[in-house]
Amino acid sequence: MKIEGEAVVLRIYIGESDTWHGKPLHMAILLMAREKGLAGATVFKGVEGFGANSRIHTSNLLRLSEDLPVLIEMVDREERIRELLPSLDEMIREGMITMHRTEVIK
């Protein structure tokens, strides 16, 4: 689905080791977004970060890669994004979800 004009960006911050029904959580969320016909979604893998527990997650070669941060970003109309929130709340045990308004140019 293509959109232009007012839209919403939903950002989901999770860890790469998070799962949902035996598959990586980021993949399950991405597939759900596609099934719901969202305009777009992208998964980004972070190099370093920390969350609520303040433990550093890093890809530093001196330390083993430990549950690197993952960011999932989705863009669509606000009402379509809000339809996903109950499912996301069920799927995400630890993590953070943010949403902000944006304008799609192209």
- Provide a count of the helices: 2
Overall number of strands: 8
Sheet-strand content, in percent, reads 35-45%
Terminal residue distance = 12 Å
Structural class: alpha+beta
Taking all residues together, what is the mean pLDDT? 88
Helicity, as a percent range: 10-25%
Sheet with most strands = 4 strands, antiparallel
Radius of gyration: 15 Å
What shape does the CA trace take?
Answer: globular
Order of helices and strands: EEEHEEEEHE
Strand order of the largest sheet: 4-7-1-8
* Unreliable runs: none
What would the keywords be for this entry?
106 residues; four-stranded antiparallel β-sheet; 8 strands; globular; alpha+beta; 40% strand; single chain; two-stranded antiparallel sheet
How does this structure look, described?
It is built from two helices and eight strands, in the order E-E-E-H-E-E-E-E-H-E. With 106 residues, it is of the alpha+beta class. The strands form three sheets. The chain has a four-stranded antiparallel beta sheet with strand order 4-7-1-8. It has a two-stranded antiparallel ribbon with strand order 2-3. Strands 5-6 form a two-stranded antiparallel ribbon. It is globular.
Summarize the structure.
The protein has 106 residues and is an alpha+beta fold.
Topology of helices and strands:
Elements: E1 5-15, E2 19-20, E3 23-24, H1 25-35, E4 40-45, E5 48-49, E6 57-58, E7 69-76, H2 78-91, E8 96-104
Antiparallel strand pairs: 1-7, 1-8, 2-3, 4-7, 5-6
